Amino acid sequence: MTALQLAAFAIDCPDPRRLAEFYGQLLGWEIDEPASGDDWVELADPSGGAPLAFQRDPGYRPPSWPSRDVPQMMHLDVRVATLDEGHRLALAAGATQLPQPADRADADFRVYADPDGHPFCMCAGQ
Fold first, then answer.
1. Residue 92: helix, strand or coil by DSSP?
2. What is the largest CA-CA distance in the chain?
3. Which residue numbers delimit the VOC domain (predicted)?
4. How distant, in Å, are the alpha carbons of 5, 56 from that of 2?
5. Sign of the CA dihedral running 74, 82, 110, 86
6. Complete DSSP assignment for 34-59
7. Above 80 in pLDDT, residue 1?
8. For residue 15, what are the contacts with CB-CB under 8 A and spacing of at least 6?
9. If you average pLDDT over every residue of the chain, what do you get?
10. Is the pLDDT of residue 126 over 80?
11. Once rounded to an integer, what is the mean pLDDT over residues 98-121?
12. CB 115 within 8 A of CB 18
């Protein structure tokens, strides 16, 4: 059997560079300029894993989370030492805090939206 390797994780958005800069600030990753262009921008994982990529979608519609009218389709979980640290870093990068699910008020994660409305979670602990 052939071993497969993840080549990239791509996120649709209206402005790939702007969203790559947001996640670059949040994660501390750099844009891989040789792999990027106007319609596709990659953030290089400094640990050597697959890049996080952003591709232009002129018809992009942001998820309406927590409503299911426009489903989120995917979300990223970002590990942080504490929820306070995650909150500070998310807001400093330009995220918006979203409502915490009522049944998870005491959970070890908090939900945010990136500048294009994709939900992501800041998860505390190991």
1. helix
2. 45
3. 5-125
4. 10, 31
5. negative
6. GG--SSEEEEEPTTS-PPEEEEE-TT
7. no
8. 56, 116
9. 93
10. no
11. 92
12. yes
